[in-house]
Each structure stands twice: as C-alpha cells, then as structure tokens.
Amino acid sequence: KILFEKINSLPDSILAVAITQDSKFIVSGSQDKSIKIFDIEKRKQIHHFKEIHTDSVLALLVTFNGQFIVSASQDKSMKVLDINSKQQVHHFKDAHLGKVSKNFPF
To answer: How many CA atoms lie within 13 A of 78 on its CB side?
Structure first.
C-alpha cells in the first residue's frame, strides 16, 4: 500500500526519515534545513519546522514514547523537538566537530 503517492511540499532532497513507534507519523529532514511531520492516516503534512537548522538535516530519531524528535545537522548541532507542542525543547550547539551523517538504530 502506498502511503503518499506524491508529496508536493518537499522541494529539496530528503536526507533523513523516521517513523513514530505507533506508526502514526513520518518525520522527514531535508537539505532545506527543515523538518516536517506527516500524519500517515490523513496523508498530509501536519507541521513544518522551517529552517530549524542552519544547514542540511542529516539524521533523525523519534523517541520510543513518540514525544520527541532528535535531529542532527551538517551545522554540527543536535536539536530536540516536541512532537505534540511543535516546539524546540533543546539545542545542543556544536555538539560535534563535524557533521553527523548516519542514523544507527541500536
């Protein structure tokens, strides 16, 4: 079953994708420095964190409880975003010496 035939709201390359544990939401991170949340059942975008980073979003993780998104960027930072309130909770500035380029779901 195809969840989304076409998503017109994704102008730049998607570099990272995560799904919530309950399979309700897909989260995408892209070259345009943004993170988007999509409702799978409704097949539509429900939030757009515009330019949440200063460079491409390279890695995403949704916490087990589905409450937070953790993002890592080529800007060397990590951010914690609350899915329900649609707010940034924390910013780990210069968290790494270089870009974070992979997700390792261990």
So the answer is: 16
Cα separation, 82 vs 15, whole angstroms? 20
How confident is the prediction along the chain (106 residues), in pLDDT tens digits per residue?
445 555 555 456 899 999 999 999 999 999 999 999 999 999 999 999 998 999 999 999 999 999 999 999 988 889 999 999 999 999 988 766 666 666 545 3
pTM: 0.81
User: How many other CB atoms are found less than 10 A from the CB of residue 12?
Assistant: 11
Beta bridge partners of 80: 70, 90
3-state secondary structure of 38: strand
CB 62 within 8 A of CB 21: yes
**What would the two tokens of residue 11 be?**
């102008």
Q: What six digits make up the tokens of 68?
A: 């937070």
Give ∠ CA 87-89-95 in degrees, rounded to 5: 125
